[in-house]
Amino acid sequence: MNKWVVAITVMLPTLIEIVDTSVVNVSLGHIAGSLSAGVDESTWVITSYLVSNAIIIPMTGWLSRLFGRKRYLLFSISLFTVSSLMCGSAWSLQSLILFRIFQGAGGGALQPISQSILLETFPRQQHGMAMAIFGVGIMFGPIIGPLLGGWITDNWSWHWIFYINGPIGLISILMAFLFIVDPPYMERARMKIDYPGLLFLTIGLGCLQVVLDKGQREDWFSSEWIIWMSYISVSSLTMFILTEFFAEVPIVNLRIFRNLSFSSGNMIMFFAFFNLFSSIVLLPIYLQTLMGYTSYLAGLVLGPGGIATMIAMPIAGKLVTKVNPKAILAFGIGVAAYSVHLMAQFNLLADFNTILWPRMVLGLGMGFLFIPLTTLTMSGIRKEEMANATGIFNLLRNLGGSFGVAFVTTMLARRAQFHQVHLAEHLTPFDRNLQLAIPQLSQTLQERGFPSPLLDQRSLDVIYQQLIQQATMLSFNDVFSLLTVMMILILPLVLLMKKGEDDISAPGLH
């Protein structure tokens, strides 16, 4: 079978699954109003999907061997498609959350299965191009998701952000049935089921994802239920790791981490997506809260960065066959770190182009980072272990994004409080600058028609509002600077990686 037909077959359902991780975000207000729910309650529509997605991703290799990869792929696409239609037909918030759990469970396997099939189908010398195809899909999804969700919700209704998956899902099922063939080592096999591992993994990752998604909203460990969820998560994941090392047929084969390149690559991937998701979450907050941008204008700033990534990836895919991939990877990390350094220089007077340029630089850096990183990480993995390896790789990529978002939103709030207290120390009746500023500002307000009584108090209010803006701006600078340092610190890990010598040939597709 033509490798490009296989690529289209596996990437089509993967793309709609990735889009669905973010397509709901802009529609939460409409969903809450339609289903008579609060906005806080409606966020479980996102959390439920992320939780079930995170649980399934690392199990993908084991489930593929248990049921046969093609059979499991068809089941996953079918479950995703049917549950999408049920989400669109949901009659209450509780039913929508339930169907989103099923949707996430169906979609969780699509990313690792697609990546493993691409790596097996393309010959080793074209692995860079195969990962460029995969990378374009996973980068394009989060960009188009909110834009597509907003347009559909405004012009049709929120129900259609789910209904639109129906015809695409049916086409994907047909193509997978016709064009995907299991290699012998991925056909259905009789295996002993590791029930303890399955239980600990499900509880551990489920609780972890809930903590990351809800922690900042609940003020982290000041909330008793966040403390308990964290304790259960750490305990369950610890037991899971111990169980897997002694299991006859582990759900996730952790021994693969003995491969130094694989371990280093996963750590780099975690922090790279920690940085990427942190940046693309911080930018819209900065633009809308401090710079007065609309959601549309904020989207215009983010969009070109995604386009830059999609341009860089095919170039990187070609270069990895001609240049040492480690050099390209180090270049990508360096460019990504430089882009975040530029963001750390933002201020309250930054114009559109000043903000747009660092986002485009970040897009280029991620394009040159993702391709060589995936190629180096997977180059020493045997075909039989590819599904297990891609499951772990995709899990750590997703967890990196979740940890990044939770970390920067918390740091942003903490640093804003710090700077607000520090700046407010100077707002005293004895401060000479404040003594001079109040009469001048009062005169300006009076000239603009404000009533004479309480002008000095009004002037103080205006000054304090400016103080809060400055404190918030300084907190953005701090967080972007911290992200820059974190990106630079992962550079030494590149030295630990080496290119595998075992050729991963394509399976017998016909």
Can you give me a brief rundown of this structure?
The protein is mainly alpha-helical. The protein has helices at residues 3-19, 28-34, 39-42, 44-56, 60-67, 69-88, 93-108, 110-121, 127-155, 160-163, 165-179, 195-214, 224-246, 260-289, 295-319, 325-343, 352-378, 386-424, 432-447, 455-489.
Topology of this protein?
Elements: H1 3-19, H2 28-34, H3 39-42, H4 44-56, H5 60-67, H6 69-88, H7 93-108, H8 110-121, H9 127-155, H10 160-163, H11 165-179, H12 195-214, H13 224-246, H14 260-289, H15 295-319, H16 325-343, H17 352-378, H18 386-424, H19 432-447, H20 455-489
Helix pairs in contact: 1-8, 1-9, 1-11, 4-7, 4-12, 5-6, 5-18, 6-7, 6-11, 8-9, 8-18, 9-15, 9-17, 12-13, 14-15, 14-17, 14-18, 14-20, 15-17, 16-17, 16-20, 18-20, 19-20
Labels describing this entry:
4 domains; 510 residues; 74% helix; mainly alpha; Growth Hormone, Chain: A; disordered C terminus
Describe the structure.
With 510 residues, the chain is mainly alpha-helical. It folds into four domains: 1-191, MFS general substrate transporter like domains (Growth Hormone, Chain: A, Up-down Bundle); 194-248, no CATH class; 256-407 and 478-499, MFS general substrate transporter like domains (Growth Hormone, Chain: A); 417-475, no CATH class. It has helices at residues 3-19, 28-34, 39-42, 44-56, 60-67, 69-88, 93-108, 110-121, 127-155, 160-163, 165-179, 195-214, 224-246, 260-289, 295-319, 325-343, 352-378, 386-424, 432-447, 455-489. The longest helix is centred in the C-terminal third of the chain and has 39 residues, at 386-424.
